[in-house]
Amino acid sequence: MDKIAQTAHGQPSGHPKGLYYLSFTEMWERFSYYGMRALLVLFLVSALGLGGWDWPRSQALALYGTYTALVYITPILGGYIADKIIGYRKAVIIGALIMTLGHISMAIEVGHIFYFGDKYSKPMGASVDLPGGKKEFVKMGAKIYGATTIGPYSKVGGEVNNSVFFGNSNKAHDGFLGNSVIGEWCNLGAVTNNSNLKNNYAEVRLWSYETENFAKTGLQFCGLMMGDHSKCGINTMFNTGTVVGVSANIFGSGFPRNFVPRI
Asked: Domain end: 81, 107, 133, which one?
């Protein structure tokens, strides 16, 4: 009896101490797996403005199926490596480290991941090759925030927040662009900047081609709307809620008008 009490001393309920570490590790692993299963598709199909990747549902489910299959396939490879190469102890340590790094990467939000026009996501400072020979180029040191979409063959640098670039447009130099839409074949000169918030935080008004007047947008943040084939010179400054028509050429000091018609 004394021997049994001595064996159980310091071990609640008489279980080995290692059992509790094992239980919590298993709970963490299952929370990770089933939590990912529940959230992965929802994240992939969510709109860009809501923080998702705006994937088609079919592609999101295909990735979900691949993820689920790998959960059952990879332990076979991991077991072989543990048995034949590195041993159980190192296998547990490496596996726990990989799981920890994975959870950290999901828990910390960063602004360095963004969306490309053909459903590809890459870190900033990368030249990206897409199917069909398409390419986007993001210059090293660029700061990309929010839901930013970059079309085929476009070049982006400087600081960009919550903006859309259609194909073959160029903003390869420093300067801020926020809450803006840039059409095809546009070129923004070096150190071009735009304002996306009024000094009094008022609702932004944009030029409406339908009414031929400025109309309320319901937005507090709204930057530059530039039509296809438009260009601007070095150090151009665009005011909040500026609309530039097709094939416009903007240069000179000071702020241009909030509406620059097409040529």
From this structure: 107
**Mean pLDDT throughout 38-52?**
74
Same domain, 223 and 122: yes
What's the pTM value of the predicted model, to 2 decimals?
0.54
Could you tell me how many helices (H) and strands (E) the chain has, helices first? 4, 22
**Neighbour-count burial for 42-62, b at 16+ CB within 10 Å, e otherwise:** eebbeebeeebbbbeeeebee
CATH code at position 217: 2.160.10.10
Please name the residues in contact with 147: beta carbons below 8 A apart, sequence gap of 6 or more. 48, 49, 51, 114, 115, 162
14 and 30 share one domain: yes
Lowest-confidence region among 26-40, 63-77, 79-93, 172-186 = 26-40
Pair (126, 94) in one structural domain: no
Average pLDDT over residues 62-88: 85
Which domain range does residue 36 map to? 2-107
Q: What is the pLDDT of residue 230?
A: 96
